[in-house]
Magnesium transporter MgtE (Sphingobium cyanobacteriorum), 954 residues
Amino acid sequence: MSERGDSAEPLIHGEEFDTSPTGQAETGLDEDDRLKPAFLNAVLDAVEDGDSERARDLVSPLHPADIADLLELAPAERRGAVAAALGDLVGAEVLSELNDYVREDLIGDLAPEQVAEFAAELDTDDAVAMIEDMEEADQQAVLDALDPEDRAAIQSALSYPEESAGRLMQRDLVAVPEHMTVGQVIDYLRDNDDLTRDFWEIFVVDAAHKPIGTCQLSWVLTCPRGIAMADLMRREQTLIPVDMDQEEVALRFQKYALISAAVVDAGGRLVGMITVDDVVHIIAEEAGEDILRLSGAGEGDINQPILMTVRTRLVWLVVNLGTAMIAASVVGLFEKTIEHLALLAALMGIVSGMGGNAGTQTLAVMVRAIATNQVTSSNTWRMIVREFRIAVTNGSVLGVLIGIGSYLIYGQPGLSLVFATAILLNNMVAGLAGVLIPVTLDRSNIDPAVSSAVFVTMMTDSLGFLTFLGLATIFLT
Amino acid sequence: MSERGDSAEPLIHGEEFDTSPTGQAETGLDEDDRLKPAFLNAVLDAVEDGDSERARDLVSPLHPADIADLLELAPAERRGAVAAALGDLVGAEVLSELNDYVREDLIGDLAPEQVAEFAAELDTDDAVAMIEDMEEADQQAVLDALDPEDRAAIQSALSYPEESAGRLMQRDLVAVPEHMTVGQVIDYLRDNDDLTRDFWEIFVVDAAHKPIGTCQLSWVLTCPRGIAMADLMRREQTLIPVDMDQEEVALRFQKYALISAAVVDAGGRLVGMITVDDVVHIIAEEAGEDILRLSGAGEGDINQPILMTVRTRLVWLVVNLGTAMIAASVVGLFEKTIEHLALLAALMGIVSGMGGNAGTQTLAVMVRAIATNQVTSSNTWRMIVREFRIAVTNGSVLGVLIGIGSYLIYGQPGLSLVFATAILLNNMVAGLAGVLIPVTLDRSNIDPAVSSAVFVTMMTDSLGFLTFLGLATIFLT
């Protein structure tokens, strides 16, 4: 429990404080907590020279999260050698911090007994994360090598769906009956050595083991021994159903600013606990992945094997090829007009492009608003009106700008009028499509981040070409 | 400290557990913790009928975060009436959960004394968040209405830069000298009524008030009274410099899975504490805002006054108009070719569009990787090679697909060859631009999420047209 460094000075990350003799230079981190390239190279050189001791001296002051970064930053073909040289500095905690692909790669070389040893050191949730993606046979070998208690805990976690609260939770928690007093709870905690030492709240349960209240440790510590837990606990709790999707768990932690929460089974009985440090990376991932989905970049994991990445992206590009062909066929309808006035071919891309940009703006706002549960049928209509007003305003400004600009360049009032009108109309299409498509997809339980862009682009491209070339055909030829 | 509900049953959010008599139906939340439209309408109707009591009965079981949602979901022109009807249910906590624009709107109607009353109830960080965006005169009026202690704390927080750790931190924390024993700490906590009751870790400081260790409350509770804090605390700490940007604070909490952290001034002295519940919304916002920046949608706040939104988006559209004009001028160079073969006008959009899509994929991955501090000069070259290989692979597959497809449609081998080559070349451009542009911007300390898309689109549009029309001019006319 007490981990003591060699030095009594705190480690300060970052360059802000030159006064700290044990800051920056020793930990090898830059001001963004990234490993300095020079530091990584020093470690790689030491490993290459066969000087494991030097490598270990360099790495040992690092936090496990930074050692994980070091392995990720090292070239793939040298990671095995680095891990071998660092020995037990690459412990269970480092493995649980590692990128999934990098970890699979490193673990692939280990014996099941070794993986089991790592798993036994970790909280259930971290152990599960480490082995859940292994091949079934390998996973079974690891489970067989665990002691029965750890095995049971991990198997029980694995019985819940992937990405559910059941996978995220840990079973080690502190639950007490409501009649216990503060003093009795403290004595119980002191006397039971096999309790977890990392918890932030105590759950109060009834005889059926259903949670009836939660108590922050700070409340226990600041109260006299005689107070009953029933009088100290907060009865309003946010409980997590064990089968809840991890994305919803993360949003719930975020919305209610939770530090930990009780996980309950379908009968309402307490079966586990989730702490905020286990969901904080999910909160960040879920919030960050919309940009990747919207652009069809899949997971966007820079450590993913290249062929998997190629496949994901290619699917998206081929789908978009379809929409591009539809847009091209619209242009094809107007070949005669274009032969007659080739200038239109140069300008039509501005109409479709401006519509595409405006549509993407609306889409990005809607996708975030939907992902953060800000959209309900109470405000959908308000959003449509809002985006349409923005579209009309921006379309008018751009239309006037482009109309005047093109008149100054080409001196053809008819062309400029057609151009400006098409810009305004396509902005209106973009604004409407940018709201209606994600909202409709969301109501049909389709992730709007994944699918919206294709449809919005198809609308802004095809209708942009159609209005511009159509108006040009009618009024200019 | 002890908040007791009327019922001993826990509130379970969500529809998963029909067994709970106090779940779903009473709280008015759907399975995503969003307020049900029917519930909102019932509240709005009650307010309209002048039946404040009914409105309050409906709303009182809600968590402050949900009351904030209710005000946000209510139409803007009715929010004042709803807040008035709900009275003290719209307390300080609700205000601190409210969207900035909605809060400003509501607070605008209140007397400075009322705002000061709310501010006094809140932790320093929440109070600061509430008043930092007010007009200077209004802010001063609120500060004047506060009691001297609260005023000093808030003024001191306001003296730090916006979005810095100094604004986020709270001053109320527990710090003890290292010679104190567990028993002495517990006695100290019990005897001092004016200490904060919400803390998760105890900071151990030296005589100069510099933090030398951190101790989780669970460690204090599970240890005998005689143990010295010096033997219990963890000496490796992650300290937060008071002037650190909140984005870096959030990333640091996320990377090192912190629950709370000590904030230190330039001299290394402990001046405050940040807890994870204060940064969890920043983690989500920072991760989610890249999609908004990349698409030029500004903050993407659906509650922002419409004219502010129009302005932000218009700036972006006008910048993109510039790049669209450059692309158009490239097409203009080939007017003769297009007059000769108008089909090219239909197909050229496919070349530029496919390049744009591939470029956006790479860009999204790079923007996320840079934002999460995964990119250093150690792996930049590896990323360039990786993306280029993906680009060549996808470009080849698409090129062959499009070449064969267009040959089957048009039966012109020369055209198909030009088409396929242009697709491959433009994919390569997209892959390189998608990595090099964000990396270069990042190294120049320009936010790659904001500025990259313009440049990447310019490259894929202009060079897409140039290669396709250029090759066509050479080989087909």
The domain at 175-277 of chain A is CATH 3.10.580.10 (CBS-domain). Chain A touches chain B through 162 residues (CB under 8 Å). Chain A has three domains: 24-163, 175-277, 306-476. The longest strand of chain A covers residues 211-216.
